[in-house]
Amino acid sequence: MGAEDKHISYRIYLVAFAIFVMAILVAVKLTNIQWVEGEYYRDLAQKRTVREITIPANRGNVYSSDGSLLATSIPNYDIRFDAMASKSENFKEYLKPLSDSLSVMFGKPSSYYYNTLKRARNNHNRYLFIARGLSYTQYMRVKSFPLFNLGAYKGGMITEQRTVREHPIGKIAKRTIGYDRLDSSGNEREVGIEGAFAEYLDGKDGKQMMQKIAKNQWKPIGDNNQIEPIDGCDIVSTIDVYIQDIAHHALLKQLEYYEADHGCVVVMETKTGYVRAISNLGRANDGSYYETINYAVGESQEPGSTFKLASLITLLEDKKVDTSEVYDTHDGIVTYYKRKVRDSRKGGYGKISLARGFELSSNTVLVQAVYDNYKDNPKQFVDHINAFGLNNRLGVSIKGEGRPRIPQPGDKSWSGISLPWMAFGYGVSMTPLQTLALYNAVANDGEMVKPLFVQEIKEWNKTIKKFDKEVLNPKICSQETIDKVKAVLENVVKKGTGSKLYSEDFSMAGKTGTAQVNYGRGKGKDNGMYYSSSFAGYFPADNPKYSCIVVIHKPSIYKGYYGADVSGPVFKRIAQKIFTDVPSTNQVDNLDREVEQQDKKYESYYTKAQKKYNTIPNLVGMSGMDAVALLGNMGLKVEVKGMGKVKKQSVAAGQPYERDQIITLELSS
Fold first, then answer.
1. Using only C-alpha atoms, what is the Rg of the chain?
2. 383/152 Cα distance (integer angstroms)
3. To the nearest 5 percent, what fractions of the chain are helix, strand and coil?
4. Nearest one of 276, 614, 322, 371 to 484, comparing CA atoms
5. Other CB atoms closer than 10 Å to residue 132's CB: what's the count?
6. Which of its termini does the chain have fewer beta carbons within 10 Å around, N or C?
7. pLDDT digits 0-9 by tens, 328-363
8. What is the 3-state secondary structure (H, E, C) of 161-226?
């Protein structure tokens, strides 16, 4: 018996010792977790229950040269409800009036909201969806509803804000205004002004703390952000909405009539290089036209006869010939290395001067003039073309400028026909904007300027960067040559290939162009004969204010394809409207009306604002940038004090207003 008790005692000691050791190990582990690894586990717990999210800053606005809003960021709000946040007595008291308010605003029966909210309370739902995509005004209205007006902690209203980009006047110059976003591969796509000036437009993002609640859902901790986002700067573009409207619809009309594949038009201010209008339209499968590619900036192709201007300037500047030099057109055909150069007129033009050959766009005359004078030294001709700057990109701010191609003697591609073919615009490659820069230089008495799409960058009313005229070539040739070339360009319209465009009411000067282009689509019923029709020039002829180029690709050959017939009327329409139908206001028709299929998703918030508001809206708490944009589109003049969100407005919400009335906004710092 004693031995058995002794054996039991040993086992008790052993168990006690094991428990003691385990207790020591637990104590060591707890100490290690608390003091050694404590920071790690605390951080892990924090990350799993609380996290910091980025609040994107409002991108700056893009304006036209006259102050019209072209692109803006506006806040959108999603509303959810934490059914467990409010006290029982508050929930019971305000459930019915809250349901009635939601019913009036969103159209569903009050009983629907009553039952939904009550069920959410019973199910302890802390993230009930209420509404999505509300405007600021709608958000402020919901925030004032019973129960919700008690705040996030007592009322349970959860607000999630995001920003959307809208275009108040429609998709005006869509590809030029552009966008800045990620593609499917996660890479940034920098398109147009939005992409080129993203560093100014983006602003600085803010931060907000979010807390994890049931079902892996997150809600904001409090109403205030940890770091408030700072709005981006505004961009004032060179676009004039009135000229843009004219150019857009003149181009669209011709594209539709000639059933063309695509086309573009650019109108540039002669002295400054400011691009006042640019439209790029391509045909979709349904026959409508969209702005999908910036052809004017990015499409480099053979220019055809518009390149003859470079040939003529070179001949005159090198003193090889004068405009009075006479050439035989040889019945409209000349041959080089067994390759024929033909005039568009069968039988040619007989014997005519160089000037007349240019006016009639005679290929045989220009080719003979260039080949006869440079065949022994083609490098002299090409070097002069290079000296104009035509072998280099213009270096415009918008990404994707096409690369010009000027064949160089000594290159592998250089051959016997390179020189004669260059003379009338084949074998070379240029974008419409690069061609326009040459014509603008002639209009500008030889000074070649860079095309500009942005005038200035502003931080509220303060200009932080201004873009003035940028000279690429101070003098492409002598004034004597400029004067001769100007006279010939004017005669093209008066009595040359552009004579159908002539008007006694306003003067124009320019050059037609018709190039046969290989679009790589094989032969069809039209035997694969595809054309690019163009017209480049300036107006008024005696004192040029604007230069312009129109290029229309692949018009129906059954309706016409010559530059004077297809592209010339667009040029004339623009010049005519600018100088004979000058508007009394800058109001234009919505540019989406002809291509409305490209944007049926939503009507611009600010366009709605113009129709909706008969009184001053409540702006308190709204981003200063958005408030200025909203009031500006209502026709009010805005004075701003400070930066941030609206803290105070000089005219109370609900008050009637008059156009051009001044309202002062005081912003929080």
1. 35
2. 72
3. 40, 25, 40
4. 322
5. 12
6. N
7. 999 999 999 999 999 989 999 999 999 999 999 999
8. EEEEEECCCCCCCHHHHCEEEECCCCCEEEEHHHHHCHHHHCCECEEEEEEEEHHHEEEECCCCCC
Q: Quote the CA–CA distance of 128 and 81 in Å, as a whole number.
A: 5
Distance, in Å, from the CA atom of 583 to the CA atom of 606, rounded to the nearest integer, reads 23
* Alpha carbon separation from 193 to 62, 232, 236, 464 (Å, rounded): 8, 14, 10, 17
- 251 vs 628: CA distance, rounded Å: 34
Distance of CA 406 to the CA centre of its chain: 30
Out of 29-38, 81-90, 126-135, 475-484, pick the least confident. 29-38
Burial of residue 312, with CB atoms counted within 10 A of its CB: 0-12 exposed, 13-18 middle, 19 or more buried: buried
CA dihedral of 58, 59, 64, 65, whole degrees rounded to 10: 100
Tracing tokens 């003098």 back to the chain, one arrives at 475
Q: Which residues pair with 204 in a beta bridge?
A: 230
The two most distant CA atoms of the chain are separated, in Å, by: 144
Convert the pLDDT of each residue in 244-254 to its tens digit: 999 999 999 99
pLDDT, one tens digit per residue, over 353-406 is 999 999 999 999 999 999 999 999 999 999 999 999 999 999 999 999 999 999
Q: 653: which 2 tokens?
A: 């919400």
Rounded Cα–Cα distance for residues 538 and 521 (Å): 34
Question: What tokens were used for 82?
Answer: 């934490």
CA dist 424 and 341 (Å) reads: 10
**Complete DSSP assignment for 4-62:** HHHHHHHHHHHHHHHHHHHHHHHHHHHHIIIIISHHHHHHHHHHHHEEEEEEPPPPPPE
